[in-house]
Amino acid sequence: MTEEPPLRQDAPPVQFDAAAPVTGQGRMDAAWGSTAGDEDLSTPVANTPAASGEIFSQEYKPWNGELNPRWMRNWAILRHHLLGIFKKGHRPWGMPTRLFILVVFIASLSNAGLTLISGLIGESTLHQLWGVSRDNLYGHVLGFFPRNVLYYPIIAALLVGSVISEDRQHGTSALYFSRPITRFDYVGMKFISVAVIQSIIVLLSLTLYYFAEIIALGRGWAWIMDTFPLFLAAFLSGVMLVFTYTSIGLALSSVSKGKFFPGIGLLSIVLGTKVLAVLVSTLFDREILYLLSPYDCMAHVGQTLIGTQPTYDQYSWTWSLASVIAMNAIALYTLSARVSSMEVTRE
Amino acid sequence: MDELIIKTTNLTKSYGPHVALDNLNLAVKKGATGLLGPNGAGKSTFLKTILGLIQATEGEGTVLGHDIRTEGDAIRARIGYMPEYDALNPDMDAIHQVRYSGELLGMNPTIALARAHESLQYVGIGEQRYRNIGSFSTGMKQATKLACALIHDPELIIADEPSNGLDAKAREFMIQTLTTTVQSGNRSVLMASHLMDDVERVCDNIVLLHKGKLAAQGAIEDLKAIDREIEIHVWGGATRLEQALHADGLTVRREGRVMRIAHTGEDTSTRILRCAAETGAQVRRMHEYEASLEDLFLVIMENLGYDVKSSEDLLASPALARKVDAPAHMGGGGA
User: Fold this and answer.
1) Are B106 and A68 in contact (CB under 8 A)?
2) How wide is the angle at C-alpha A273 spanned by C-alphas A269 and A277, nearest 5°?
3) Would you say residue B335 lies in a domain?
4) Parallel, antiparallel, or unpaired for β B156-160 and B79-82?
């Protein structure tokens, strides 16, 4: 509360009678109170401080924690890519990719499911078709249709499509390389991430298939001793398949800035070379071109490992193994060269 | 405040016959430092070298006491780098992007998430942190990149063109945030920018590179001394006065009634007034002209043989930079 300013002492009294001269002063005084206090050129105001209305306060908060070592940084990359398949807040895999992974995983388990059913209902014909055998183990991993036409190469193409190229496209490589992450760790963790997701589909489903037979049909140690080498051979073939698809796919991803080219490129290499080899083989009875096909070479090696009838028998399986190794070497060289050239300051 | 955060001795980096950094002897003090230089001056190479990402051909250097040749990992763990270009995944929301950037440093995911909230709050993203980065404005993206750099509370923040492409409001906020980080947070900033006003507002010191060599370094206030001028406002007889000043051996820049005379010594003012008295020109106003960083930059570039009207010519447009690069008397195609 402010005090009323005192009346000016020298001011003439205001008259309101009829004889008083009309000066306007009286009316003005009546309207505005008085002339008192005009001379000090100040006006009383409320001295309550106005609320600032501030809703954002910028305050620098220090952090004194310790950073974990290298393995934790690498785990962060792996976790980011793997958990992104299942939950938000990690690497944003596209919905088609997630759905396709789910569908293919379920489809990959079809032989395990039918083995379980055959064991439950005791149907021997069903078991002969779907149960664990040399050919079925080979077919689970390296069978051409549908697994290496519709399942595994497409999964690999969807996964590798953007896994490195997106870092070039969005410049997120700077996020990695401006931190204590080496190029080897970066590419290694990306490789493992993609390979693990494919392994869940190819190798986990293979393992579940094998154990489904043991459980559903009550297989004993003798059967296991007989078939376990076949299972191991199929498993090794699966590792080779996942490794090769990943290395070729990531090499393509590292030379691109989009997701389309690496995906289509991988499918073209896997399926295109296969088609070419078949055409040449059919028309000219020459099988040599199969050495350019990653799938055919892996199938040849896998057939030898598991012990099924080889598709191409004009050449030794060691040629196929050498070709697979050469393809992987070229892909890994391209990958490492391209990742080495990724920039931090600009991309 | 005299503690050195970056020190290089005879630092040289060559790419075959091209020398990107040429015997660079730098001493960057704690606080805010601007890194300036025309396109191709070696700024990017310098940043990559001090981050330990590329090996120097010769010489040595330390960042925060770590050897740039052997301790790149340790350096990158203690600095925060804010790149010039987009470095964010547009499909992620800001909070998780910043958290991931912390995890890449080795932070525990829970702690990284808590720090991500704090960092984004600090850079003014607030509740927008749950939005996809793809929907962000340029200013918000820049702020998110700064949050990524600040998440582990680094001792040195390297900001590459932090206010590039921002509107006035966002630019003001970015400058304010960097200033607060230096003043309240007691952190150091190495800021590469072509916007001289921004550098001058944030930084106390500058490092100016030119063709891989050090053209200038030191406190901005000290460096401005090389461009001291006295500004006079003349009424009547300006042309006569200008001629008299020239005749007296003074260097004059004139724009209408305003003249700036190079400060050559303590008697400069007396000489100006004497000339004015002799020519009958009225000096209505006379004061020491406070040079801006822009003026300083142009003077240094002029000394190096460039003829450019503004820093934009050299710093902002690569096309123009190429045109003015390598003046004729320095062995190039001419400015």
Assistant:
1) yes
2) 170
3) no
4) parallel
- Same domain, residue pair B218 and B315: no
Residue with tokens 């150091």: B188
Residues spanned by the domain of B28:
4-223
Amino acid at B14: S
Residue pairs between chains A and B whose CB atoms are closer than 8 Å: 125
**In contact, B203 and B191? CB cutoff 8 Å:** yes
Exposure string of A289-310, with b = 16+ CB inside 10 Å and e = fewer, is bbbbbbbbbbbbbbbbbbebeb
pLDDT of residue A20: 59
Of A61, A89, A174, the CB nearest to B83: A174
Rounded CA separation B112/B115 (Å): 5
pTM metric for this prediction: 0.82
For B269-320, how does the pLDDT look when each residue is reduced to its tens digit (9 = 90+)?
999 999 999 998 999 999 888 777 777 777 777 777 666 666 666 565 554 4
Look at A175 and B111 and tell me if their CB atoms are within 8 Å: no
pLDDT, one tens digit per residue, over A194-232 is 999 999 999 999 999 999 999 999 999 999 999 999 999
What's the confidence (pLDDT) of residue B297? 79
Dihedral angle of Cα B24, B27, B32, B35, to the nearest 10 degrees: -10
pLDDT digits (tens, 9 = 90+) for A139-162: 999 999 999 999 999 999 999 988
Q: What is the domain count for chain B?
A: 3
